[in-house]
Amino acid sequence: SGKTYLAVRNTAAKSVAERVNAEPEPARELVETCAFLPLALRIAAANLVGLPEQTIAGYLAELRAGDQLGGLAVAGEPEVAVQVAFDASYRRLAPGTRRLFRLLGSVPGPEVSVQTGAAVAEIPAETAARLLDELVNANLVEPRGLGRVGLHDLLRRYAREREEQEDSPAERAAA
Predict the structure, then answer these.
(1) H, E, C per residue of 116-171
(2) What is the value of pTM for the model shown?
(3) Across the chain, what does the average pLDDT equal?
(4) Of 19, 73, 85, 8, which Cα lies nearest the Cα of 44?
């Protein structure tokens, strides 16, 4: 019934809140590891609710040590995963925009300028600016000031995975 569902949900929310209060620093680090993405945070919280004996610090250590993209999924529900959301955004992009995104995964540093995007993709700066805007609109990169974007580590990993799956070794070496 609806009342039972709400009671279970409220108990789970209380459990997560108590755990966050008990481990504020690991909870903050988990939020950062989840790239501040609401879906990733909901999945992490659901996983923690399902593991009542697991500490946030322990869950965070396991997440960091393993496949973060794969780890931010709800067991038994493959459609509830961060990677599924990233895939949906990525598939909507035009091939040239996808290529730039994949290339950005290999660029060192927290930010990328329009000029850097143009250089790695070997395209004009005007085209790079337009494609970076498309990536911002798809929520795959975030604006970091005029002519600059950034990739969170989670999205950088995703970009690298896409590059490994879609680009030949020669293309990866050239980039």
Answers:
(1) HHHHHHCCCHHHHHHHHHHHHHCCCCEECCCCEEECCHHHHHHHHHHHHHHCCHHH
(2) 0.73
(3) 86
(4) 73
